[in-house]
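Need 6-bladed beta-propeller protein's 3D structure for a figure. Predict it.
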Amino acid sequence: MMKALCLSLVLSFVLINAFGQERHYFDISEKEDAYHKINLYETKIIHEADLTFEIQSLTLLQSRRGYRVNTIRKVRMSDALIYVTDISNTNLFIYDLQGKAQNKIDITRYDERAWITDFTVYKDTIYIVDNKSLFLFKFTAQGDFLSKELLTFNFDDFMVNTEGLHFICKHETGRRNNTVRINVFDHSLNLLKQYFLISRTNDSIFRPRFFLGNDDEVLFSVYLNNEVFNISSNTVSKFLKIENAKVIYDYAHVNGFHSFRVSYENKIPGVPLRTCYVKNATAENVRFEKFRSDDLTSFIFNGMDSGIHQDKFVSYLDFNSPNFLRAIPDMKWSAEHESIKKDFFQIVNQIKKHPHHVVVLFRIVQSHSNPN
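Structure prediction for 6-bladed beta-propeller protein:
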């Protein structure tokens, strides 16, 4: 039985390669200039700028029987629903925009070997992958099962956009170069094209991954460093370089701002990673770095960025944390946050032992103190 399965997988891969899909080869040059350059040491700090955070909504993920969320791993939002996975790696929870539980996908119901190593939501479909057992599951946006596919290749990360499904992996490694392969499929999982990207940097942490961009963008890194690349019109170029940063761990851009977590070149062991929001125009870089402990925006900084929705950033945080609870009595409210003050205190009054995860939707805007 196992021999037959292995033979089937091999034949499938051969047939995929026999139908002449497009192949593109690129040597990633270390000398290429990036479209965006950010120097962390030259950016302005928030108090020097006329910009502020504007929190659009705070949503408490309400508990009910069977819907207890442990430490959150990932959050995604659509126009009507919120999707959450936690450290169980087996459940995907679905909530409405008021935080009421709507459905739960237990992936082991569809294969007892399956784990949720990642997921995304595109249009009306949830895509769940397991890069250990090589499963791809599809569900409706409401959580109804559509299909289960067995993939024929290893991968490190995946993303879905208007073109289709993209899988990125370490193709091969050598003493003098690293090679990344990106497979691109349509939404029905027909192979369209492949990219082979060679980097001559011999980095010991070779971990290719995708970053969040617009629907027609494919942003990725080839290993953990301070650069982000872009695929556009079948051409690979350097999209972003963050100077004086050692590693970019998370990245997204929306509404004219880059958001990222980085470690500095001179990072001292034990020092936490820095979360930054930087304006697109190099001449007007603004780094949001220092926050008052009695201002609501400090909890944006302490939260975990989890992507973008429309023209806003998505974050989540734990309203049950000791630092948060101690800060409540002394909190000051700016004009930008008065609109959600009532929601804030309603959530504070509701949090108990289990329902304490809050999803935050926010953006960066011109400060009311200087509307021009």
